[in-house]
Write a structure and sequence with these properties.
This protein has 111 residues and is mostly beta strands. It contains no helices and 7 strands.
């Protein structure tokens, strides 16, 4: 999935399929001020979130300056079922950042 840094809304949500299940991705403009649909992307911080309903939520921040990603940081990996390991957030290029981790699904045993 690609996200156009030059043409976006203050809050956008997308749903994709992963392992046959819907996963929601939300991109939030953290400042939500001085928004102009036709201007270049503002120099500020944005929060990227990915949500697998009833399983987990991943979010991280990207800082933008001059239409480029300058840093990616602040990863939060929350599992309502199972757990995460080997988590990381990194800037790959001026236009790509990634938050990743290993999620292990664990079924709760009833006693």
């Amino acid at each position: 999935m690609s996200y156009d840094l030059t043409d976006h809304q203050p809050i956008e949500t997308f749903t994709i399929e992963e392992d046959g299940e819907p996963v929601e991705i939300t991109i939030t403009d953290d400042s939500l001020i001085n928004y102009n649909l036709f201007a270049r992307i503002a120099d500020k911080t944005y929060t990227i979130s990915k949500n697998k309903q009833n399983s987990w939520v991943i979010s991280y921040k990207v800082a933008i300056k001059s239409n480029k990603i300058t840093s990616a940081y602040g990863g939060q990996f929350t599992a309502s079922q199972g757990s995460f390991s080997n988590t990381s957030v990194s800037k790959i290029s001026d236009y790509t950042a990634i938050g990743k981790g290993s999620w292990k699904y664990r079924v709760q045993q009833q006693t």
